[in-house]
Every structure is written in structure tokens, then in C-alpha cells.
Amino acid sequence: MALAYSGRVLEANARVYRRTWRGSVMSTFLNPVLFLLAMGVGLGKLVDAGDSSLAVDYLTFLAPGLLASTAMTTAAGDASFPVMAGIKWRKSYEAILATPIGVGDLVAGHLGWIGVRLTFVTVVYGGVMIAFGATSLVEGLLAVPPAVLTGLAFAAVVTAYTARLKDEQGLSSLFRWGITPLFLFSGTFFPISQLPGWMHPVAYSTPLFHGVELCRGIALDLPAHVDPWISVGYLVTMLLVGWFFATRFMRGRLVK
Amino acid sequence: MAEPLVIARDLHKSFGELVAVAGIDFEVQRGEVFGFLGPNGAGKSSTMKMIGSVSPISSGSLTVLGMDPAVDGPRIRARLGVVPQDNNLDEELTVYENLLIYGRYYGLPKKVINPRIDELLAFAQLEERRKSRVEPLSGGMKRRLTIARGLINTPEMMILDEPTTGLDPQARHLLWDRLYRLKQEGVTLIITTHYMDEAEQLCDRLVIMDKGKIVAHGSPRQLIEQHSTREVLELRFAVGTQEARARELEGRAVRTEILPDRVLLYTNDADVLFDEIHAAGIIPESTVSRRATLEDVFLHLTGRSLVD
Ligand SMILES: Nc1ncnc2c1ncn2[C@@H]1O[C@H](COP(=O)(O)OP(=O)(O)OP(=O)(O)O)[C@@H](O)[C@H]1O
Ligand SMILES: [Mg+2]
């Protein structure tokens, strides 16, 4: 029953998305192309011409990292502003909870929908990577599940975070102090080994690092810095703990 | 007699220190229109949300459709229709999409929802707006749409929190007509309102709440009989003379109420009283004689001063 209920929430999200997809579809297709062109091809020429210690050319190195990062930013976007809108701006969650749907179903359906979106976005991204010759077909597709897992782990935590926010200021802090630094320093653009030694433990402990590691490991078939199962365990734990608190905080916020 | 659809016993709701509902008892019978009246902050919406099984009760007991909301919330909500005090329609979506998506939350198949939407749009006089977005609709249209949305699952009982607040008289009368039709179809209605004429028109029985408690209950007619006289004589005096005049009137009526701009005399026969006053040489500037209304009862029981 609970599954059916969260399915209804997922479906409603999809219906709403059907009306608003035009805004995001351009970024879904265009972002990977732009990033891979500018950073991978443009910057990559310089990197590859210099004394690069990378085992592969820069584009190949960068692409899977960007895949994981894109999953993170997509998830963070979908789990923040729309959640605030549901709670506060449009009060759609209040309307939903007057029906048989409960808070647990609401959160599960919301995360499920983000999972669908992430699958779509990462498959498109994988396609662009393949088109750029940054990875092979099989390895590009194999990198999709860890990217989706990375995104979902973030979606759960960001939903929990947003459920407790009074206003949207907390959302800009989230991106300024959370998502953007992670994007820059989790090994997407350069190997962690380039960072000063004291920052290594910090970088290793961030979730995006593990997402990048997993995607890169699969796409490039490179030896990993950490056991991939540790990375999977990390992200799964983050997803489950985030989900638990998302439901809990949402209940505290919506059931009065 | 059939079991009531709602049974509340010593029902409480608190938000931290604040007690919003302070022990109320009532029963709602199948097929009736049951009203909650009360000044701002009396606890009406809090009570509605508990009946709607979205807000847990703090203490006491509550049975809705024979079930306990704490245990069977989803099953109860599946059979209720809810119109919240503030519209929470999805303004980005069209009228049709709002209804469709809501129907899907109840798990109704599209085959069932679509003909239902046709009926409801006709019911709410929104057929022409089917494809328009909700945001630009007028307040009355949004209210009608919210009511239509609350009916998408053909509920046995509807909970309407101030369904007509903010509407113009035309829109209110249209809504009254619609609500009356629902009642005739056998839907039980629970409504809150600040409009006494609305309560008199619509409610079979009602309770008046004040500060979280029920201060009176009965049919509109019973309430007037119990808490007021049959008629009211309203007198206005020349500016500055009201005080003195009013003192001369003391004791002549069943109850005398002195307002800043006029004096109200509660009596069972306004004409007789008027003649008596005239005979005593008290000549007001203007006089209105009328039947007592629910508003008189309401103001008498809940006071004339603002709570907040
Ligand atoms: N979620 C909440 N958190 C804290 N206090 C609340 C909450 N909801 C209601 N209250 C308080 O409970 C009291 C009763 O509010 P309620 O909304 O039930 O009144 P009402 O009779 O519906 O008033 P109105 O006619 O203004 O709609 C008020 O003092 C209100 O501030
Ligand atoms: Mg209210």
C-alpha cells in the first residue's frame, strides 16, 4: 500500500514536470556539452600539452567526474526549491496530506521521482560523454547507476535539510557553502593528490568524492583510491540516513 | 439511530503551551450540515484539521466515520473531502490538471476521474476555464475549484473551513446553492463560517466556540430561542444624549445593551415596548425594530470586543 501511495506522488511529480520540463531540458542537454567542450576539450588541450601526471587525457579524466557532480547538483536543485515550495510557497504538501497519502509516502515518492529525473539526466550525460569519445558505450552506461546513487544520497540529505528551513536564505547558503565547494574540491576537476596533504582526509570524507571515484573507476577502469564497496556503502548509508531524517523532519514540519 | 459520523469527547488540541481546543464534545450525524461558529482564534480550524485526520489530537477522543484518526488516518481521509481555509491549489497548473492530479492521489483511475471532472466543472461553473492556469482566476473561481477538488473522490463527508470568506454576494449565493445540493445528495457537511446569515441558511445544527470551548449548541432557531429574545429594538439618539437616555431605558427590556452608536433592547414584542417608551416620553432619533438573529446570539455569547 505504501508503495502504491508513494507511486502516486511520483506520478504527480511527473505530471507537474510535463508542464515545466522545457525550462530544465535545455540545461539537461546543454550543460554536459558546454562543460565537456570548455573544460574537457578547451582546457584539456593545455593540460595534455603540459606535464600531466594523469594516466589518461584530461577529457577522459574529467567526464566521469562531471557525471557524478551533475547528479549531485541536479539532485540538490530538485530537493531544495521544490520542497520549499511544497511546504511553504505553494503549500502543495498540505493539500496532498489531506488525501490518503501520508508523510512517509510523500517523501518516498518525492525521492523516487528525483531518482527518475537523475536516471534521465545521467543517461543523457553519458550519451554526450560517449559522443565526445570520453568513454566507451558500455562503460559510459555502467557509470550511470553510481551517478544516480550519488544524486539520491544528496537528494535525501538536502530534503532533510530543507524540511527544517524557515526561509529560502538557507537554500542559498546550502549551495554557497555546500554544493559549490564540493563541486570544486571533490576530485572532479583534478585528482585529490593535487590538494595540500592536510586537505586529503577532508576530501576523502566528502560524499561527492566517493561518487566521483565510483563513476571514474567504472568509466575508466582505473585502480581506485578507495575500495569501491566503501564508496557504495558510504553513499547508501547517506541515502538511508538522509531519507530517515527527511521523513522525520517533514513530519515535524507538516503535521501540527 | 445510526452511529454519528463524528464523535468528539473532551477533545483537546495544544500547540506547546497554547491551548487551541480546550475540551469539546460534539457529534455530527449522517446527512446533516453541522456548523462551527466562533471568533478568530476560537479553535475552529484546529478542530477541522483533527476531524480531517491530518492533525493528531492532543487528548480526549475522536472518532471519524467509526474509525480512530490516529490508526486509520489514510482510510478516513480516503472518504473525506476537505476545503481548507486557505486555498492550496497548484497555481502553476491548469484547472483540469489540479483536479486530475488530486484524483490520482486518491488512487482513482483516469477513466473514473475524467467524467467526474466534467461533472465537477459544471457543478463549479468552471467549464470554460478547464484549460486555464489557476493563478489568474478570481477568488471566487479558486474557491469553487477548491470545493470541486474536495469532491473528486465522491466523499461521504465534507469539511469546509470558511468556504465563502472573501467572496462577493453572487459567489456566496452560488456556493450556498451548491452546498445545499450536496446536502440533498446525502453528503454530510461540516462547515465553519463567520457569516451568521450563512450559518442560519445552511446549518441544521451548530456550535459556537470561544477560546477553545463550546459555549452554545443547537439549531439556529433553538440558539436564538435559548440565548436571545424574539425581537430587538434598536434606538439611536442625538449625539451626546445617548448616555442619559439609555439610563432611563434600564429595566424596560429583557436585556439592554448600550453600544457607542445605539442602544439595543431585547424584547419579545418590539412594538409594545416601542409604545411604552414613547408613552414615557423618550423619543429616539430613529428606531429599527427587527427579529433577533444568530448574530445577536453570537455577539452576546462571545462578546463584542476583538480578541486579537
Ligand atoms: N500550527 C500552529 N502552531 C501554533 N499555534 C497554532 C497553530 N495553528 C493554530 N494555532 C493557534 O491555535 C489557536 C486557534 O487557531 P485556529 O486556527 O484553530 O482558530 P480559528 O477558530 O480557525 O480562527 P480563524 O477564525 O481566525 O480562522 C490560535 O491561537 C492559533 O494561533
Ligand atoms: Mg480558521
Primary descriptors:
heterodimer, A: 256 residues, mainly alpha, B: alpha/beta, Alpha-Beta Plaits, 6-stranded mixed sheet, 4-stranded antiparallel sheet, binds adenosine-5'-triphosphate
Report on this structure:
The complex is a heterodimer of chains A (256) and B (308). Chain A has one domain (2-254). Chain A has ten helices and no strands. Chain A has helices at 2-49, 58-89, 92-97, 103-131, 137-142, 144-163, 169-185, 200-205, 207-220, 228-254. Chain B is an alpha/beta fold. Chain B has two domains: 6-218, 3-Layer(aba) Sandwich (Rossmann fold); 229-291, Alpha-Beta Plaits (2-Layer Sandwich), CATH 3.30.70.790. Chain B contains eleven helices and 13 strands. In chain B, helix 8 crosses helix 11 (294-302). The longest helix of chain B is centred in the middle third of the chain and has 16 residues, at 169-184. Chain B starts with 5 loop residues before the first strand and ends in a 6-residue tail after the last helix. The model of chain B has no long low-confidence stretch (mean pLDDT 91). The chains are: A mainly alpha (256), B alpha/beta (308). Chain A binds chain B through residues 1, 4-5, 8-9, 11-12, 15-16, 19-20, 90-92, 94-102, 255-256, and chain B through 15, 49, 52, 54-56, 73-75, 77-78, 80, 82, 84, 86, 88-93, 97, 100-102, 104-107, 153. The structure holds adenosine-5'-triphosphate (ATP) and magnesium ion (MG). Adenosine-5'-triphosphate binds at residues 15, 18, 20, 38, 40-46, 85 of chain B.
